[in-house]
Amino acid sequence: xxxxxxxxxxxxxxxxxxxxxxxxxxxxxxxxxxxxxxxxxxxxxxxxxxxxxxxxxxxxxxxxxxxxxxxxxxxxxxxxxxxxxxxxxxxxxxxxxxxxxxxxxxxxxxxxxxxxxxxxxxxxxxxxxxxxxxxxxxxxxxxxxxxxxxxxxxxxxxxxxxxxxxxxxxxxxxxxxxxxxxxxxxxxxxxxxxxxxxxxxxxxxxxxxxxxxxxxxxxxxxxxxxxxxxxxxxxxxxxxxxxxxxxxxxxxxxxxxxxxxxxxxxxxxxxxxxxxxxxxxxxxxxxxxxxxxxxxxxxxxxxxxxxxxxxxxxxxxxxxxxxxxxxxxxxxxxxxxx
Length: 338
What we know:
With 338 residues, the chain is mainly β. The protein is 11% helix and 62% strand.
């Protein structure tokens, strides 16, 4: 058995050592159309669950190139960017029941709506090593930036139910003497209607527009197959790959709270994949059609903004757990002049 494994190992080693690879430089540019989806969800301080899941249609641009270092190694510099975005309606939903003493309020519906559009940019720098003709392992880093632009805010049909349920835990809170923040009843407690008037959500009147920019620096590794690295022959070309990543740095800027810093490290993950086929017309030029898929998840990031004496609890600003994914179909031209 040992002898058989030794012969197999020597055979594989001999194959890798003597296999011819086509490790040559190339550049490319491509354009595609697809959809970018954003999902944000979580639990509010009152215990209510909320969620929003807008999807936009985008035009994508791919560009970059590969440069060999030696017979088996090389590096990539690749970019992905959206050139345009549709504007879509976004709906924020909430559900759950909240009880305070003998008072229970519930919500199940849309409490806020608005219009949204999106932009996305990636810069990837990878080192690659050909382990066999066409087969390559890669590792490196990625800088990604996604922006959600929101405007035209309006109240949802369940806004009143949302406010009543969300503020139910604060019924009975004692107001600071002389603060004048809200009126109090004879017992010195905040009534629900007074809570809503002071702290309730009112998107149509209180929100004009804002953007959220999600930035990540991601450590990535993966496997790709590209028949271009196996032969210089003309004709059919196949390619595909899977790349996974871990965010070393994650930061969010929300223009509705521009002074707050939301950042985290090693929280969440990235994954992207692609598959395609094309035709090499000459030794220097070809075209590829491919499908790309990208997904990334990030955990909630919270910032403490202090204790509310009126509400008798700590208040926090949060960037909820969120997901971004896109898919697109593209056509790419590639060339080399070596």
